[in-house]
Amino acid sequence: xxxxxxxxxxxxxxxxxxxxxxxxxxxxxxxxxxxxxxxxxxxxxxxxxxxxxxxxxxxxxxxxxxxxxxxxxxxxxxxxxxxxxxxxxxxxxxxxxxxxxxxxxxxxxxxxxxxxxxxxxxxxxxxxxxxxxxxxxxxxxxxxxxxxxxxxxxxxxxxxxxxxxxxxxxxxxxxxxxxxxxxxxxxxxxxxxxxxxxxxxxxxxxxxxxxxxxxxxxxxxxxxxxxxxxxxxxxxxxxxxxxxxxxxxxxxxxxxxxxxxxxxxxxxxxxxxxxxxxxxxxxxxxxxxxxxxxxxxxxxxxxxxxxxxxxxxxxxxxxxxxxxxxxxxxxxxxxxxxxxxxxxxxxxxxxxxxxxxxxxxxxxxxxxxxxxxxxxxxxxxxxxxxxxxxxxxxxxxxxxxxxxxxxxxxxxxxxxxxxxxxxxxxxxxxxxxxxxxxxxxxxxxxxxxxxxxxxxxxxxxxxxxxxxxxxxxxxxxxxxxxxxxxxxxxxxxxxxxxxxxxxxxxxxxxxxxxxxxxxxxxxxxxxxxxxxxxxxxxxxxxxxxxxxxxxxxxxxxxxxxxxxxxxxxxxxxxxxxxxxxxxxxxxxxxxxxxxxxxxxxxxxxxxxxxxxxxxxxxxxxxxxxxxxxxxxxxxxxxxxxxxxxxxxxxxxxxxxxxxxxxxxxxxxxxxxxxxxxxxxxxxxxxxxxxxxxxxxxxxxxxxxxxxxxxxxxxxxxxxxxx
Length: 722
What we know:
This protein is mainly β.
């Protein structure tokens, strides 16, 4: 696909966001669709801290940026992007925990990469255009499918069945050569039972950082059979990303003098001139195949079975100077009578993986009892290998040979029971029990580890009246190390799995013009894997066990209707995040630093949205985000501090109702960072022992890197709805 799309679609009228009530049978459809995520979702009164976002919430800012950026204004969420503008590699932290501690499911199917445990939204560009709603649970949450959450669970439901046919064509353009084009369609219900829908998307951006370009394609196709008691869905979706690498970051001097500088691909040619390799990029494709069958049996039982196969394959390519032959299994050569054992070369590091998932659950609802029980099994096989595609000083016979080749295997099985019991009009009891068994095997890393975890959760909600309730919950989660933890482990320390005990206390107020959610949390960890601040060779954070640690905080979010046309949606999070006895190498020996701040965990995070609708179908929003200072290390080094920042975006959306051809035209505009803040949302810290100056004394040298985010930039778009 290049530039604009030209597709034939099925056109017809569909139900608008602002229309009258849906037909009665759409309620049945919605309930059956929601069953797909019943095992991982919680209801409004469940004693689990959570936030919900609808398709309408996402639509007004859905101009090409990734899902983490669209979630930026939720409580205690901090987002970042390598390329600086929200497209390409993006990530988020919740309560200071990065993507490896956020359990993500799509239609109840685990999405986190089985080995790294991370979530790579760049592999699913424009996925938000196929999302019906999202629930973000902070803390352990339910986590009944997938790995245990250590900061949050993000549960995504894709498009539900539509009663009426519809189609959309959307285009957006903006700063840094950014453009997004997509087309969507739904046949609506055919013969009262069948619906087919789909989407094709193309996103391109040059990035704010030099050469940090993104060239992204994605698709989503869905076929559905629906009846009063049966829902069968077959989905296939995926994406292909080509992104120029920008994970190196910049040092403090460059931050002050050339904040868009990117060292990736830099080399010196034979004439001594600095050049940049034009293919220093990731090239990865990922396809997902899901099948879901939901069946109602009688008045009380609903069962669902879900299967998934994910195929991912691709590589990242690099130009490397002065590489030793021995590191690539190359043989020394003689040139002009001299032995040559180093060379410039171009290498590709490949990943080819297969991931299979089977979910099954049954839901029983009668009177005041709502019980879900079931299980999930997953199997992962990942092939890692590297090849040389060009070298200056070697023979062609050795090119394309694999200089490393290894395969890893992981199995993950869990069984769970989850129940909501309404004791009377005042008390709701919640319980969630999960047993999870994991085996990870990698000969290359000399790993063959097995774990069995029991993760109980229990809570109580007290309904003060129809407008107020308070809740309390306790949840335990255990999580195994990931591939990077094994690969970068300290040989002098035993690598341990993590355990978290999470206590949540909350108060919810829901009135006609005011909705307020307040909660206090205490998260006590044993052997939490905290980021050291260092990065590995592919820019992924390195972690280490920190012994005992905790997070204690309060979160408040609200929706206040100040006037009929004016609403305010503030949120604030204040927390204390501490390692109790952090031990690290310093000046040649292990040192106990005592009580220190956990890395990448700001004490203060706040967000706000001021929304004004002066006329019908027009919405103006000022979106604000403040993130307090944070350490990138666990040793409270001032050298590792990231400064606080305050960023404001301005969003405008207007839906023009038309009488001919189009049902409506949605016009949207987004100006990011309107105050032109030069801020940094992420970085890295490292230290090393210097014994060259004085061989008798080892001195620790510190270093830092930063990922600058874009200054003022804009996106504008138009969506034609048929």
